[in-house]
């Protein structure tokens, strides 16, 4: 079932949470010179036109990047994310929104490796086309012309299946982003099973999973299932922008579950999340939750706002 197209959702509040956290995870890896792999199991198209027919249909960016666009009072990690989006819109008008592969390309260094998987035929072609344009642009600017082909590999295929073949990465350093559509409820189980296998092959990697909070049981139980995985420790951050509609329509809440997070992530989120609640919150239901722990933990911390 491949009906999902991320272009309809580009730049919404879920993308804001996912993308600003991803940037922070990569910036932590950037602190050491040693190369790392960024593996995106569900890449999407890489770049989205916000004035295109898909993105403008429901204008979901109005719940996310839209309200942040003109702000001048952002905490540093949110500003870093918004500045990256602004940089791809040099006219100052919010026209393009970056997907996770574009963000990773901007934040990763010359020596790092991007391994991008996308199953949808149209989106995998768009992803390849978008990276070809980036490569042409880079070549014109004299940036990375020789290494780019090795640096970024795009594969049309099943990211769940492919992940194991890349682990452990040569440098023993990696960030894996797992961001499936979850329209098929099997995705919840596939994420957990894929992570369990990945952690056996590469126990010290950092794994980031985006997930929606929906009415369905698989969604409500998902974070608790991930907490059982055999990692060193985990962190779970959830952003809720509004009280759920009685009909259950619309995405009001989503989370990022990180296995083996850097120690810097939790204090950063404690500072940044209240700002997102303030700017993206729609009603008194807006809040964030942040919890961290260890599998089979004796110690669990929870902060609720
Ligand atoms: N990570 C992207 C971002 O942040 O910009 C968005 C990804 S979108 C939520 C999920 C993508 O996964 C869709 O483009 C969909 O076509 C793709 N997809 C679905 N099943 C897949 C699979 N088994 N392997 C790889 N891609 C898949």
* Shape field: globular
Q: Mean pLDDT across all residues, rounded?
A: 93
CATH architecture: 3-Layer(aba) Sandwich
Bound molecules: S-adenosylmethionine
| CATH level-3 fold name | Rossmann fold
* Quaternary form: single chain
Query: In the residues, how many domains can be counted?
Result: 1
Overall CATH class = Alpha Beta
Q: Going by CATH, what is the homologous superfamily?
A: Vaccinia Virus protein VP39
Number of helices: 11
Poorly predicted ranges: none
Q: Give the biggest beta sheet.
A: 9 strands, mixed
Active site: 179
Pfam families: RsmJ
Organism: Duganella vulcania
Enzyme class: transferase
């Amino acid at each position: 079932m491949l009906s999902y197209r991320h272009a309809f959702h580009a730049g919404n509040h879920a993308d804001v949470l996912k993308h600003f956290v991803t940037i922070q995870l990569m910036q932590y890896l950037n602190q050491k010179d040693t190369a790392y792999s960024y593996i995106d199991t569900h890449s999407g198209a890489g770049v989205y036109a916000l004035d295109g027919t898909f993105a403008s249909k429901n204008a979901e960016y109005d719940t996310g990047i839209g309200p942040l666009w003109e702000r001048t009072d952002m905490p540093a990690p949110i500003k870093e994310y918004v500045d990256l989006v602004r940089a791809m819109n040099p006219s100052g008008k919010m026209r393009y929104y970056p997907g996770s592969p574009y963000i990773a390309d901007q934040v990763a260094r010359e020596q790092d490796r991007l391994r991008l998987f996308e199953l949808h035929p149209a989106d995998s072609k768009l992803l390849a086309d978008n990276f070809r344009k980036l490569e042409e642009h880079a070549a014109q600017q004299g940036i990375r012309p020789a290494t780019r082909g090795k640096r970024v590999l795009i594969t049309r295929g099943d990211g769940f299946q492919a992940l194991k073949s890349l682990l452990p990465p040569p440098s023993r350093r990696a960030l894996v982003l797992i961001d499936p559509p979850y329209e098929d409820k099997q995705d919840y189980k596939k994420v957990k099973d894929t992570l369990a296998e990945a952690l056996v092959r590469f126990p010290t990697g950092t794994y980031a999973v985006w997930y929606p909070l929906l009415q369905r049981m698989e969604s409500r139980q998902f974070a608790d299932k991930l907490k059982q995985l055999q990692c060193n420790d985990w962190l779970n951050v959830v952003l809720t922008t509004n009280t759920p509609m009685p009909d259950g329509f619309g995405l009001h809440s989503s989370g990022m579950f990180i296995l083996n997070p850097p120690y810097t992530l939790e204090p950063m989120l404690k500072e940044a999340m209240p700002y997102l609640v303030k700017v993206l919150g729609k009603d008194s239901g807006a809040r964030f939750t942040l919890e961290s722990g260890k599998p089979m933990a004796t110690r669990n911390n929870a902060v609720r706002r």
